[in-house]
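Section 3.1: Structural characterization of target chains.
Under the original work plan, the team committed to producing a structural model for every single-chain target entering the pipeline before any wet-lab resources were allocated. The record below documents one such target. The sequence was received from the expression subgroup and is listed exactly as submitted; it comprises 238 residues.
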Amino acid sequence: MIYYVQFLPGLKSRVSLKFIMKKLGQIFLIVNLLILDAVGLYWFVQRGNIKSLQVVNQGQNSTSNLEEKLATDTCGEECKAYINEKISSVLSGVTPTVTPKEEKKTQTPVPTRTKVKNVSYVPIPGSGNTLNTSWTTIAGTDFYLSKGDYPGLTGIYFEANMKLVNGNGIAYLRVYDMTHSIAVNGSEIQSSSQTSTFVTSGAISLWDGYNHYVIQARSLTADTTVFESGRLKFITEN
């Protein structure tokens, strides 16, 4: 059977019944698929809501259990203070530091080394006398030394046995540096005694190096100045 279907005015088309049934079947299939999709979507949404509700209930149950457990726990004042300190440190982002207790260190005193004073002597050879009022070298009194041979040197002194004969004047003695042609500073001593007298000078100054020395004498009033013996005293501390 053939039907004529008018799509547009003045235009007719021949359509078979078989073709129409085929189209209706396709439309029916599409409608069924849409209905199934809608039902499936509704079921999926409803199931998700149920699971969400279960999770919320489980969370509430857990919170309830935690509150019950905390209610049964006991915590003293020290415990609470410690918990509050930890919470404050976490909130402020600063980790509390414990300052270690300083230990007093006992320092062993370093013993102070005491220097030892030493005295040594350099004998002066010879003896002699003079009537001259000017400085005169007494023969045979030559000696040589270097003050650098005495480390820790603190002082040098000239000591001599001397006297003045036949007079009421003054006898003088001194050490003379032949190497530098100069009297040793501070070495002059004197006596007006007519008997042997031990006389010591103040601190004298020797030049550096290995030098040649002699003893010189003079008299104030042309009386006899006698040099009997002499020595240099070296004082060191080490």
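The chain has two domains: 2-70, 117-237.
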